[in-house]
Amino acid sequence: MNPRQALFACLDRSPPALFEAALWMAAEHDPSVEPRAILADFTLLQQQVSLDMPMLAPQELGQPLLRRMNDLGFAQDDFTPLRPAAALLDKVLQRRRGQPLALGLIALELARRLNIPMVGVNFPGHFLLRVNGTDYLLDPCGGRRLYPNDCRELLQRQYGPNLELQADHLHTAEPRLILQRLSRNLRQLHLSNDNHLAALVDAERVLELGNASAADYLARASLYKHLDCPNAERFDLEHALMLSEDPVQRLRLTERLGHLPPNSVVH
């Protein structure tokens, strides 16, 4: 079983093994990564975290868990430009620095092992966490509580005053959607660091995880264009055209398709 197959096998479990699946994603990019060994070593981190946790009901332990992680050195990666190591879980565990989503995945696995009912929230631009039964969200980068007004301010800081907070911004994220978001993050980070082949691996995974958008097909089409694969580029542009509901984008896609050479079929 290759890493991609192992990832989907993790998703097929009941409940899905989200953290292990994300480790197999890292193994796709580095054959030396051994997810099962990392899972065994993770027990030590679990012990370190639980050592100074307060004696509270499980619903009240979300913020103490994140603060304990912060005490142990886990924090948002502020290196500029951001590198793929900020989203690859094996590297985040080693460096204790990462994107909010990567830190959130570590927190979710610790919470699972400590019986804290924590879930992920695919908030735009900044992955968040929630403990079931509470009326606030949690920032995985330190554990700050976020109430609706805080979420509104966070959204406007990232996207400007025209984007309003919506109910679906606060919904619990399914494991498959979390992994798709992580794949998109890695796609962008690899692209920003000029590793187009690694970005293509991530772009393919985004599509394989299902319910891909026109933007996802466009992202892979751009990678194929850079790698001089016109047939594959055409395939993705045609799918983006079918999915797009923006008339201006559809016009541009049609024009771009018109500039590609005809499909070449080798028999």
Automatic annotation (TrEMBL):
Q: What is this protein called?
A: Uncharacterized protein
